[in-house]
Design goal:
With about 150 residues, this protein is α/β, with parallel strands linked by helices. About 50% of the residues lie in helices and about 20% in strands. Helix 1 packs across helix 3 and helix 4 crosses helix 6.
């Protein structure tokens, strides 16, 4: 077998998703990689906690609506990824978690699930938008001891 014919050795691939088109493009690559490696694909949707604790304490409806919207977004993302992964040899596991710092939660989940690689999308923000909005992908790259493949 030549170097070109070698198959990557991945026992598990972690795919963080927020349901955006960018994360679905990353899912397309992750599914292809999972098929090639014969590895399961663990998909994680990280939901940040309800941001208005004071308001939510006074009105539980705000918390409930936030939780319901996050649940819907996660289910939609999982459905889109499962549709992409309907190919022989690809097993998909999904998980929705709540964490205040998504990048750290992604890295922690990758470690806990024994992932060999994290495949994720990046919105490619630059300049002021990147400074103001941050970049989960950049934070994952900085925090992760596990290889990260970023898809733009």
């Amino acid at each position: 077998m030549t170097a070109r014919e070698e198959v990557p050795v991945f026992d598990k691939i972690l795919l963080p998703t927020d349901g955006s088109d960018t994360s679905i493009a990353a899912a397309d690559r992750a599914v292809a990689l999972a098929k090639l490696a014969g590895a399961p694909l663990h998909v994680v949707f990280v939901q940040e906690p309800y941001p208005y604790a004071g308001v939510g304490a006074a009105s539980p409806f705000g918390v409930q609506e936030y939780e319901a919207a996050a649940q819907r977004a996660a289910l939609q993302a999982f459905e889109r990824i499962r549709a992409l992964a309907k190919v022989p040899g690809v097993h998909v596991e999904v998980e929705r978690i709540e964490a205040p710092e998504p990048a750290q939660a992604i890295v922690d989940t990758a470690k806990a699930r024994g992932a060999d690689v994290i495949v994720m999308g990046s919105h490619g923000r630059t300049g002021l938008a990147r400074v103001l909005l941050g970049s989960v992908a950049s934070r994952v790259l900085a925090l992760s001891p596990i290889p990260v493949m970023v898809i733009k």
